[in-house]
Specification:
This protein is mainly α. The protein contains three helices and three strands; from the N terminus they run αααβββ. Strands 1-2-3 form a three-stranded antiparallel β-sheet. It is elongated, with a radius of gyration of 32 Å. The mean pLDDT is 86.
Length: 212
């Protein structure tokens, strides 16, 4: 008996649905309309994915901002318990300080008293657990202030307002104003009495430590 050296492949029947697709399309390629439809679908899916991702990142950042504000607010309450009031905005900033936000940092780091006096006192917040503008920290051995601020999740300094020395009678609120300027980095600051217009366009994305 003669044997063939060729092995005949096993042939399986082609499903009817596949034969129909082949006969329907033949050898023709994709039409321009079909390509555009596929690209449109891909663009929609990418847009949905990016939108969801952006929303998640924004909610996460807002949550972190609120947590940071809670820590700073607690530290300010401890500061008031220690010194009788929150840090005032002095008529002239102490050496090494040039803004309300640097004043807040140095006050909670134990270097500035309620009315701007230099201190070498109690630290009210764990600086190692906060995002800071830079790595320069006050020297525990002296009362010198440093140029530094607490930073929000969007890379901006947390804003701080309270009584201004010389016009403290204008500040009607017993509380401070502490907030993040949000993703746009913009804000309309409180007026001299401490009132905040939360609905103004610049303030809509701000995150506040209590709207009081």
């Amino acid at each position: 008996m003669a044997y063939s050296s060729e092995i005949n492949p096993v042939r399986f029947p082609v499903p009817t649905s596949v034969r129909r697709m082949r006969s329907g399309r033949g050898d023709r390629g994709w039409t321009l309309i079909e390509i555009l439809m596929v690209l449109t679908i891909i663009a929609i899916l990418v847009g949905i994915t990016l939108g969801v991702s952006t929303g998640v990142h924004r909610r996460t950042a807002i949550g972190r901002a609120k947590a940071n504000l809670a820590v700073l607010s607690t530290a300010l309450e401890a500061y008031r318990t220690q010194y009788g009031d929150y840090p005032w905005i002095p008529a002239a900033f102490p050496s090494g300080i040039s803004s309300n936000e640097e004043l807040l940092f140095n006050a909670l780091a134990g270097k500035v008293g309620p009315k701007g006096a230099s201190l070498n006192g109690k630290v009210f917040v764990d600086l190692s657990r906060m995002n800071l503008q830079n790595e320069t920290l006050p020297d525990p051995g002296n009362s010198l202030s440093v140029s530094n601020t607490f930073i929000d999740p969007w890379g901006q300094s947390f804003r701080y307002f309270h009584k201004e020395e010389g016009s403290e009678g204008d500040w009607d609120s017993p509380a401070f104003r502490l907030f993040s300027v949000g993703v746009d980095g913009l804000s309309d600051d409180p007026d001299s009495s401490g009132l905040v217009d939360y609905e103004t366009a610049k303030n809509l994305d701000n995150v506040y430590a209590g709207k009081n």
